[in-house]
Every structure is written in C-alpha cells, then in structure tokens.
Design goal:
With 341 residues, the chain is an alpha/beta fold. Helix 6 runs parallel beside helix 7. Strand 2, helix 5 and strand 3 form a beta-alpha-beta unit. It contains nine helices and seven strands; from the N terminus they run αααβαβαβαβαββααβ. It has a domain of 142 residues: Rossmann fold, CATH 3.40.50. The relative contact order is 0.13. The strands form two sheets. Strands 2, 3, 4, 5 and 6 form a five-stranded parallel beta sheet that branches. It has a two-stranded parallel sheet with strand order 1-7.
Length: 341
C-alpha cells in the first residue's frame, strides 16, 4: 500500500486540506482489510487522470477561453478576437468558481494581450464559464438567468463548462437551445474536457456505477430513500462495460464500487435525516444510487462523488475534506446537485 499512498500524496499535493499518510491510512482502514490495497491502488490510478491541481486547472482555463474564441470564429465571424468577447460574471449559483476562472483568465490575458478580462466585450459575443457540469442543472439555470436579464437578438452566447459529463451534454445543449431560441441570435455549448459517463452498453465508462449488491445496508438505503419506477435499472448490468479502461480490471472495479456503495449506504442509514439528493455514490436528485463522478479539484471535491470519500458526519473519517455551503449558507440543501467552491 505504501507505493499507492505515495502516489496519491504526490498527485493531490495541493488539495485545500493537505492529505497525509496517516490520513490516507485512517481512511482506508474503514474498509475490510482484504480490499484496502486494491482501493488505494485504483484510487491512485483514477486520480492520475481526474485530479485537477491548480496548475492543471489554469491550463484548462486557458484552453477553455481559446476554444471559445475558435468556436466563435468558426460559427460566427472569423475576425473575432478575445477583446470582442464579454466574459459573464454574476449569474452562476454560488459564483465563487466562476470568479476563480475569470481571475485566472484575467492574469493570462494581461500577460498575453495586455488587457483585463472585465474590459473585454463589444456587446455582441458573450461567454458563460463554469468549472464542471455534472447533471447540467446548474449551468442551465445560470444560462436562463442571463438570457432572461440580458438576452437580445443581436447577441451570441457560448455556454462553456470547462469539464462536462457526457451524461448531461445533450440535456444542457437542448435546454440552452430552448431558452435562447426566441431571444438570442445564437447559443452554443462547448466543453474543454469530457468525462465519459453515458450509460450505453459496451462503451467506456469513466465513473463509479456499481453492479448488483446484496449488502443489507444498501438494501435498507434503497427501501428507505428511493422511489423506484417499474423496470427502473438501478445497478450496472452484466457486460455493460466491454473493455475496462477506468479501473485496472473488471475485478478491481467490482471491489472498489461495492465497498464505496456499502460504505455510503451505511453512512446515510445512520443519519436521522439527510438532504433529498443524498446518495451513496454521490448527490443526485434522481432515484439512483448516486452520480459517481471521479473528479477531484485542488479546491474541493464535488458532492456528486461517492460520499465515502468526503462525508464528514459522525465517526467517519473523510479522505478529501469538503468545503460545503455549511461554510457559507447551509449544506443540507445544496442547489441542483452541483458543488460550491
């Protein structure tokens, strides 16, 4: 386990609450002994791809704004420059992640072009950034608010989550199109980085999606907290993933997902009351076992990730201490299954 621990520490070196060997050992010791080495080995593998350090996030922002400009050149006017695009502030729920993105972009634009981000814009082209889109709801609501307040038939809006889960891509694109069709000249949805979590048989799946589980805690969670429709698929079907690329093997996926699911279910079952979206594999309003995102950022872990990673209630020791709306407003009812900074 030592090699895996060292790898995790190196990857997540700038997490907002520093990790330590003792913390990682304490966290993994909450799982059965015969699963611990597999859990840490697989977590190290996943974090190599899905942990976004500060440096990596800065690169993502820089790539994101360049993609906005390239898209507008291709779809609207080849003469567009960065100075022609207004970068929207104030319409994102929570807002701090958007401010962080624009502050990073401001430093880059000053270095490369000698202009501030808030001086950009000529009244026709607009870009709405956010760090990541999970269910799509947060960005849909942000886009709707801007369209209702600022929409005009001469304006073009680019909705640009830096990272999007493919499961929500069609939903986000459709909702933005519907909201803008009678108000804007054009609305576009782009993303710099995609997490492949579309539930189509046989494809690559980048996330946590457990198979059938007979654990009593999981059964109790389902009975108490989910309202399942007839024929609703709750677990990952056999042969859902033809070629395993997210985990080291199908067997490793089985071990890790079953442990995260049963641990999360136990944590929820111990609480007298939980938020309406609380799920073992991560917050989601739908009646599922949870969203299961693999993302972790240097400033936070999303509540859409399996709660065994970040739940800090009772005696459970989280691996990634999570900043929640409890630090700012109220963690019990977080909006639209997204995460704050």
């Amino acid at each position: 386990m030592k090699e895996s621990i060292e790898t995790i520490l190196a990857i997540a070196h700038d997490y907002h609450k520093p990790l330590s060997e003792a913390l990682i050992v304490g966290w993994v010791n909450q799982f059965p002994e015969n699963t611990r080495s597999v859990i840490l080995k697989e977590l190290a593998k996943i974090l190599r791809v899905f942990y976004f350090s500060k440096d990596r996030f800065v690169e993502l922002v820089q790539t994101g704004y360049k993609k906005v400009i390239t898209t507008l050149k291709k779809k609207c006017d080849n003469s567009i420059t960065v100075g022609d695009v207004e970068f929207i502030r104030g319409y994102s729920e929570g807002g701090a992640s958007q401010d962080e993105i624009l502050d990073i972009l401001d430093a880059h634009l000053m270095s490369e072009h000698g202009i501030h981000v808030d001086t950009c814009g000529g009244g026709y082209y607009f870009a709405l950034f956010d760090d990541a889109s999970y269910t799509g709801n947060k960005m849909v609501h942000s886009a709707r608010r801007w369209i209702e307040a600022e929409g005009d038939k001469d304006k073009v809006l680019v909705v640009a989550p830096l990272i999007i889960h493919t499961k929500s891509l069609d939903y986000l694109s459709k909702q933005v199109r519907v909201a803008s069709v009678r108000t804007l000249k054009k609305a576009l949805v782009i993303a710099v980085y995609q997490v492949q979590n579309t539930t189509t048989m046989g494809g690559v799946f980048q996330g946590y999606i457990p198979a059938q589980c007979d654990n009593e805690s999981v059964k109790a969670f389902i009975e108490c907290h989910l309202d399942l429709g007839y024929g609703q698929r709750l677990y990952r079907p056999d042969n859902f993933i033809r070629e395993e690329k997210f985990f080291s093997s199908k067997e490793a996926r089985e071990i890790v997902e079953q442990q995260l699911l049963s641990s999360g279910a136990r944590l929820i079952n111990r609480c007298s009351s939980v938020g309406r979206s609380t799920r073992p594999m991560g917050f989601e309003t739908l009646d599922t076992l949870g969203f299961g995102t693999p993302l972790v950022f240097y400033r936070n872990i999303p509540n859409n990730a399996p709660i065994a990673f970040w739940w800090g209630v009772g005696q459970h020791q989280p691996l990634f201490d999570r900043v929640t709306y409890a630090d700012r407003v109220d963690a019990a009812e977080e909006t639209d299954d997204e995460w704050p900074w």
